[in-house]
Design a protein that fits this description.
The protein has 73 residues and is mostly helical. 74% of the residues lie in helices and 0% in strands. Helix 1 packs antiparallel against helix 2. It is flat, with a radius of gyration of 12 Å.
């Protein structure tokens, strides 16, 4: 996963970087490693791309952050 993040940074591809961060955040969350997932999920939530290409990832990351913080949906 870190290779995907590195490649996205080198290519300056924000969509690929956001999707890689989202996948890593999801993986860490599913493994119960919430403290490690938070920075990746926060980075996804802070991403906004005008064409909406990462809207699903942003919404999913926000949902996971609410769950980690104990905020009901």
């Amino acid at each position: 996963m870190s290779d995907a993040i590195d490649a996205a940074v080198q290519a300056e591809d924000l969509v690929m970087l956001t999707r890689a961060r989202s996948a890593l955040g999801d993986l860490l969350f599913s493994e119960g490693r919430h403290d490690e997932a938070v920075p990746f999920l926060q980075a996804v939530v802070r991403t906004e791309i005008a064409d909406g290409s990462v809207d699903l990832e942003v919404k999913a990351a926000a949902r996971l952050l609410r769950q980690i913080r104990g905020i009901p949906e």
